[in-house]
Known about the structure:
- By secondary structure, the chain is an alpha+beta fold.
- The chain contains eight helices and ten strands.
- The radius of gyration is 18 Å and the shape is globular.
- The model is unreliable at 242-246 (pLDDT under 50).
Amino acid sequence: KMASSYDHAITVFSPDGHLFQVEYAQEAVKKGSTAVGLRGDSIVVLGVEKKSVPKLQDERTVRKIHKLDDHVCMAFAGLTADARILVNMARVECQSYRLTVEDPVSMSYIARHIASVKQHFTQRPGLRPFGLSTLIVGFDYDGSAHLFQTDPSGTYHEWKANAIGRSGKTVSEFLEKHYTDEIAKSDEACIKLTVRALLEVVQSGGKNIELAIMKKGQPLEILDTKTVEKLVAETKKKKVPTATLR
């Protein structure tokens, strides 16, 4: 009853302090494809669950991983159309920063900018929140790797590894259990842990996983399907049986 009275206007709090439209936007994120982000000492990795596309559709037009600048990359879970608008805004901001400051944008700056845009859409009448969460990865000019997560309310946090979207909580628990400083030191171990994390929720193997990696001082690389399937096969072979996370 309370929700139905207070969930029409985005700018109105319910008596117990909820902004229901923002909470509903977070529910939209939970219905989106799973995305995983992981940062190592000299690599950042993004992995997303790819939905199978119809036979006649060009799959290049379905992208969950977007390059924002030469050193910044983003994956999302939630509404694809909303993501396109946010990606375009972020790309313009990256170029504007470069033009003004004559330096590449810092990771904390672009994460804060994306979060601020999202927050703006929770506080103005006539607007609705962005129905997506983002994982933003990249390197600062000092060579340090970063991973930030933003959600529809406009909050943002830095992580070593995190997951968003469908079954995001399950995958986050898996990462919490298996991510170590030792893994962070090895580029290969970081990539394999991302694949293992996605395999917790993606049943159909390599063809439904998209992986992007960026190493220090190198451009973004989106791995082709053959490479991903090879990684999946290796991961499944070495997988030690563990209790299923619930």
